[in-house]
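Following up on my earlier thread - several people asked me to post the actual chain instead of describing it. Fair enough. Here it is, all 141 residues.
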Amino acid sequence: MDWSGLIEQAFEGLQHAYAPCSGFRVGAALLGRSGTVYTGCNVESCAYTPTCCAERTALVKAVSEGERAFLALAVVSDEGADGDYTSPCGVCRQMLFEFCGGEMPVILAKSKEDYRVTTLGTLLPMGFGPAKLGKEGPVCE
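Reply from S.P.:
Thanks for posting it. Predicted structure:
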């Protein structure tokens, strides 16, 4: 599959990152089942706890606009602490899992040409989602 457009939109989201404390800027682009792409960036607070990651920004933006099912997520950064791909933190993985389930592709990219595709289930094995509560919830197709 060609993920270059989604990766490009994640880099566009990255341009709005606000990371004065860590300097670690992240962008994300979340593809909704509707075909709409929701971008996000990290927004830091000097207290760190209220900081919102790019992935959660994109997810909350999408949910607040009525989207409840997603097909893919691209995550990018212009900073790599170890030169590796940037992946969602544990909190982001959990929130995404509740809407997307384990099969959703997650594209971790350094550029449109240099990326790795994994799944949310690989990033969050044995994830806790609506099914664990005996409920049905949004799940990626």
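The helical segments are 4-14, 54-64, 90-100, 120-123. That should answer part of your original question.
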